[in-house]
Write a structure and sequence with these properties.
single chain, 230 residues, alpha+beta, Structural Genomics Hypothetical 15.5 Kd Protein In mrcA-pckA Intergenic Region, Chain A, Pseudouridine synthase, 2 domains, 9-stranded mixed β-sheet, 24% strand, binds uracil
Length: 230
């Protein structure tokens, strides 16, 4: 494969920007600076951009324990993004499979596999997401029935899909939902006349946040975790 095509495929640089990078001596092949866009690259060649090795090897999948204060976006002019927490080459090609609010903590899936990302996030797949929620005040007694029946959220045409609730001590609950509307959990508890003061995602489908990961830490998904998304 031509060098310029290879770089364009393994980074988010356009072919035009690849040519600029080559001209600016930012690219090495097997340790030697090269400016030749048409150079043919084989599988044993090591291509680096700004010292980072480019890899065409298969898609990547990670789970991150998101801390508060980070945004689930690929770039942001004010807040740090969750991608900043990943010490990975070419992290600019990675995308978040299901965003969390800036103040929400917990499980975030990150990948450069577009179709896999779509299977996690598409409303059609109804992938279950579980949140540990701290509420401001006591939850109404009939919350279970109302969550099962579906809630009417502001500016939504349809009721929420049936959701499952577990109650714990104090004002702590666990909620499992099968959809992902904007600020959904906060809006659901607002519809129950309450307010979310702490929100932590524990699980997406069969992928459970690894308890060994401290806030801000991440790891690659196992093959079983990747394959659990069908
Ligand atoms: N629901 C919310 O309200 N916020 C999140 O971050 C995730 C789900």
């Amino acid at each position: 494969m031509r060098l310029d095509k290879y770089i364009a495929q393994t980074t988010d640089l356009s072919r035009a920007l690849v040519k600029v990078a080559l001209r600016n001596k930012r690219v090495t092949v097997n340790g030697e600076i090269t400016k030749s866009a048409s150079l043919v690259i084989g599988s044993n060649d090591t291509v680096q951009l700004d010292g980072n090795t480019l890899s065409a090897a298969g898609p990547r999948y990670f789970m991150l324990n998101k801390p508060a204060g980070y945004v689930c976006a690929t770039s942001d002019s004010v807040h740090p993004t969750v991608l900043k927490l990943l010490d990975e080459p070419n992290r600019q090609v990675l995308h978040i499979a299901g965003r969390l609010d800036i103040d929400t903590t917990g499980l975030v899936l990150i990948t450069d596999d577009g179709p896999w990302n779509h299977r996690v996030t598409s409303p059609k797949s109804e992938c279950a997401k579980t949140y540990y929620v701290t509420l401001d005040t006591d939850l109404v007694d009939d919350a279970e029935e109302r969550l099962q029946a579906g809630l009417q959220l502001h500016h939504e045409k349809h009721l929420t899909k049936p959701a499952m609730l577990e109650r714990f001590h104090g004002n702590e609950v666990r909620l499992t939902i099968c959809e992902g509307k904007y600020h959904q959990v906060k809006r659901m508890f607002a519809a129950l006349s309450n307010r979310v003061v702490g929100l932590h995602r524990e699980r997406i489908g069969d992928i459970v946040l690894d308890s060994d990961l401290a806030l801000g830490e991440y790891r690659a998904l196992t093959t079983a975790e990747i394959n659990s998304v069908s």
